[in-house]
Amino acid sequence: MADIFDEVEEDLRAERARQFAKRYGGLLALAVLLALAAVAGWQAWRWYQLRQDRAAASVYLTAMQEADAAAGAGPARQAAIDGFAKVAAEGPAGYRTVARLREASLKADAGDRAGAEALWDAVAADRDADRLLRDLASLLWVEHQIDDGDAATLQARLKPLTQPTNPWHGLAQEAQALLDMRQGQDAAAKEQFRSLSRDPTVSEGVRARATGLLARLGG
Fold it and tell me: d(Cα 62, Cα 56) in Å, to the nearest integer?
């Protein structure tokens, strides 16, 4: 008797399975196909991203080599500028900001101050860029205008950079002191240089320059 019941239960389970497959089999097959398509799409996207990263890295490294070999504003320097510009325009996010900074540096060295300042300003305003690099771009923008830029604008850009928690605060404080000197505010400049000369958190070069300038100001 028990065997009969077991056979009946197996028949019922088989029938339910057939009915379930008949009713939902198409949906299950579609779900499987969609899952496979999603996996294939993700793999294709990863392959594409890897290919783009490799292409950007190749262009970037070539531009670096050309920049190292460049002198003045010759063809090699222009080729390097063009290479960094290409990466900045087309490369992955990880390369774009650094490429713009390198392009700006080369333009400044070649005498294209306006072009360099435009790039630094663009990086400083880019909310998608790393904060450290944005602050560096802002600092470089200020440093290249320290002699003739609008003093109020420069001071406003320097203020957040001179905070002790900012990684660039030593260089920003040095720029602020130079701006004070330009405006004839020697007492304020002396205070900045004195603080820098005693600050163990800034580089040795910054401390040495601060000590020298303080001596020149009779501080």
Answer: 10
3-state DSSP call for residue 100?
helix
- Say if residue 180 is exposed, middle or buried (CB neighbours under 10 Å; 0-12, 13-18, 19+): buried
Distances, alpha carbon 107 to alpha carbons 61, 67, 130, 186, in Å: 18, 11, 22, 33
Please report, as a single letter, which amino acid is at residue 127.
R
Its pTM surpasses 0.85: no
Give the pLDDT confidence of 82-113 residue by residue, as tens digits. Answer: 888 888 888 777 778 888 888 898 888 888 99
Residue pair 174/210 in contact by the 8 Å Cβ criterion = yes
Q: Estimate the crossing angle of helix 169-182 against helix 186-197, to 10 degrees.
A: 160
Query: Length of the chain, please?
Result: 219
Read off the pLDDT band of 31 (50, 70, 90). low
